[in-house]
Design a protein that fits this description.
This protein is an all-alpha fold. It contains 14 helices and no strands. This is MFS general substrate transporter.
Length: 373
């Protein structure tokens, strides 16, 4: 809200820094909280339902921004100021009921009976040896296990690559559509069907992924959609050598966001699925999202106004990041299957001989834990 009231660039930057600092824990906190209630093969569709609220917000944001911009000049304030003020006030108003609506941990939540809490804990304990693969003590050895886990760093790189394409497209979609020949207000409205279609495809992919207990294939499907989109956008003119109509380029925007929103929530859940133990999952998810969100720094700087209407740097960087994501997903999948085979052959059973205190704090390094591809 204060961003709509500032009078200097420095004040705007200060507001953005405070906003970012206070929002930083929301995404990893939400995935961690949701994972405390559901088995691994139930998590993708739940988290994606939560994530889809952000996609739908993109649709309504375009419509809302279009409407609020009509307030330009009211009380002597520009339209863009009213967008920040009104949307900021809405967030503040929601924070009051949110305090009572957001649940606590399963052991403390008020909407479950004692029997239901016991059932929930039993279901989670039976979910692939998670009762044995615990990490309830954050000691020096636990920190070493967390920080040396290759899965966290590969997933963080994957999420970073997706964030570069995701943030850049999210920031610049209206501007890109203006280059297709639509005026600013119409470009805002053209973003709405894109987000609606993306919400539907993202939810379908999440349901199918949970049903099949598989993530990798869907990530590669998202990579394919993304790659096709940016190849189309890179092949336009002017003069347009392939004669690509505006509708074809508009279709590419659909493909780009379909691929983006299939992949982004799945990368987060895939890592969470393959970590066990409270501390491992909490810190691992925070590292992934923290590093990944830095992709917004790059994403906000790759669409150069000097290159309009054909953003070769933006589209080319996005395509390269999509390919990096595909490589990281493949490395992650191969690594999980390789480790599962080693455990099936008993090559990690020596860990059962560790002292009880150490053995009960191994997290997903416990030999009975199996990874989900």
């Amino acid at each position: 809200m204060c961003q709509g009231l500032v009078q200097s660039y420095g004040a705007l930057v200060a507001c953005r820094v405070i906003l970012g600092a206070l929002e930083a824990g929301i995404l990893p906190g939400c995935i961690y909280l949701i994972s405390m209630y559901y088995k691994r093969a139930e998590l993708q569709k739940r988290y994606t339902t939560f994530f889809s609220s952000a996609i739908l917000a993109g649709a309504f944001a375009g419509l809302l921004a279009y409407a609020i911009a009509k307030m330009h000049g009211r009380a002597g304030k520009s339209g863009w100021r009213w967008i920040f003020i009104i949307e900021g006030l809405a967030t503040i108003a929601y924070s009051i009921p949110a305090k009572f609506l957001i649940p606590d941990w399963p052991e403390q939540c008020r909407f479950l009976t004692t029997e239901e809490k016991t059932l929930l804990q039993t279901r989670l304990a039976l979910d692939n040896a998670s009762e044995e693969a615990r990490m309830d003590c954050l000691d020096r050895r636990a920190w070493i296990l967390i920080l040396r886990d290759w899965k966290i760093w590969v997933s963080a790189a994957n999420y970073f690559a997706l964030s570069v394409t995701g943030y850049s497209t999210l920031f610049f979609i209206p501007y890109i559509l203006v280059q297709f020949g639509w005026v600013a207000e119409e470009a805002q409205l053209r973003t709405i069907p894109v987000y609606v279609v993306c919400t539907a495809t993202t939810l379908i992919a999440a349901w199918a992924s949970d049903h099949l207990r598989h993530r990798y294939g869907f990530l590669m499907l998202g990579t394919l959609f993304n790659a096709i989109a940016y190849i189309i956008l890179l092949c336009q003119g002017p003069p347009d050598p392939l004669g690509l109509k505006r509708e074809v380029r508009y279709m590419a925007i659909f493909f780009a966001l379909i691929g983006q929103y299939i992949s982004t929530p799945m990368v987060v859940v895939w890592l969470s699925n393959n970590m066990s133990g409270h501390y491992k999952r909490a810190i691992g998810t925070a590292i992934q999202v923290g590093i990944g969100n830095a992709g917004g720094i790059a994403g906000s700087n790759i669409y150069l106004q000097s290159e309009a209407p054909i953003f070769k740097t933006g589209y080319g960087t996005a395509l390269s990041m999509v390919l990096v994501s595909g490589v990281m997903s493949t490395v992650f999948y191969v690594g999980l299957m390789w480790e599962n085979r080693k455990r099936e052959r008993g090559e990690r059973d020596w860990r059962m001989g560790l002292e009880k205190k150490v053995r009960e704090n191994l997290g997903d390094e416990h030999p009975r834990f199996r990874f989900m591809g």
